[in-house]
Amino acid sequence: MNDGVQPDNRHQPVVGLALGSGSARGWAHIGVIQALEEMGVRPQVVAGTSIGALVGGAYVSGTLDDFADWVKRLTVKDVFGLMDISFSGGVVKGEKLFGYFEQHHHNPDIETLEQKLVTVATDMRSGREVWISKGPMLDAARASCALPGLFSPVKMQGRWMLDGGLVNPVPVSAARAMGADVVIAVNLNAQLVGAHLSRDTRSQADQEHGSEEEHSIWQKMMNYFAPGDDENPGFFDVVAASVNIMQDRITRSRMAGDPPEVTLVPLLEDFALMDFHRASEAIEEGRQLVERYATDIRAWVGSPLADRV
């Protein structure tokens, strides 16, 4: 018997966001998330690799806007000042950088959050893909960010973890496994990075360093990141180019086998690997990208989630 109440048969998909690896270009993730929220699209599942894990963690813990304000203010001096240089296992140990995050941003246990979060890391011993969906958010992000040649590996659950981009640069599969019906993926690996320190970055750093200690640190970093030439490529040229090529090929392969419903590719080809001080540009590109794909996003997501409450 029908009592006059019409059942609502509309399918409300679980929206997942897959935030890929890509070093400084990853600040574009912030703009993507902010623009999605303004559309009324709030992903229930967030999967992040490397820089995507860090931005995704800030988002689900409710501190993304504060985090965005901070990264927009970063100068070259600030970026290098947050790096605890150690040429054992990687240039940067990460303790200073992530210690700063822990002091200034919320660091909840992932399982207590309203949205689901999973970060992707690589077991250094076995080469296996590791999904982290429990424990402190920053620990999960740090394990995913150990880019070979740049960040030192981190020990977690008795295992040394490397960057998740080595096995799953754009974690669409992780988002689906966490229950996402519709996945919006942000792929930062479609444009290979040629430079690691842009010319403007080097010039700005030369102007900003003041003390003898700061000058010494800068020179160490310059020596490490300095490009070689056609005859003799520099050490970091070889490491970074190898990682870039590998991640691009893995991304193509994995996304062909498990394509997301919407793929967003920020146009940031002039971004060098270490251009973390250019956050405003990357964030704005992320925002514009969502605007350009707004019709596709709405077609897959349906009515904005804000209107369903």
UniProtKB/TrEMBL annotation:
<dbReference type="GO" id="GO:0016787">
    <property type="term" value="F:hydrolase activity"/>
</dbReference>
<keyword id="KW-0378">Hydrolase</keyword>
<keyword id="KW-0443">Lipid metabolism</keyword>
<keyword id="KW-0442">Lipid degradation</keyword>
<dbReference type="InterPro" id="IPR002641">
    <property type="entry name" value="PNPLA_dom"/>
</dbReference>
<feature type="active site" description="Proton acceptor">
    <location>
        <position position="163"/>
    </location>
</feature>
<dbReference type="GO" id="GO:0016042">
    <property type="term" value="P:lipid catabolic process"/>
</dbReference>
<dbReference type="InterPro" id="IPR016035">
    <property type="entry name" value="Acyl_Trfase/lysoPLipase"/>
</dbReference>
<feature type="domain" description="PNPLA">
    <location>
        <begin position="17"/>
        <end position="176"/>
    </location>
</feature>
<feature type="active site" description="Nucleophile">
    <location>
        <position position="50"/>
    </location>
</feature>
<dbReference type="InterPro" id="IPR050301">
    <property type="entry name" value="NTE"/>
</dbReference>
<dbReference type="Pfam" id="PF01734">
    <property type="entry name" value="Patatin"/>
</dbReference>
<protein>
    <recommendedName>
        <fullName>PNPLA domain-containing protein</fullName>
    </recommendedName>
</protein>
<feature type="short sequence motif" description="DGA/G">
    <location>
        <begin position="163"/>
        <end position="165"/>
    </location>
</feature>
<feature type="short sequence motif" description="GXSXG">
    <location>
        <begin position="48"/>
        <end position="52"/>
    </location>
</feature>
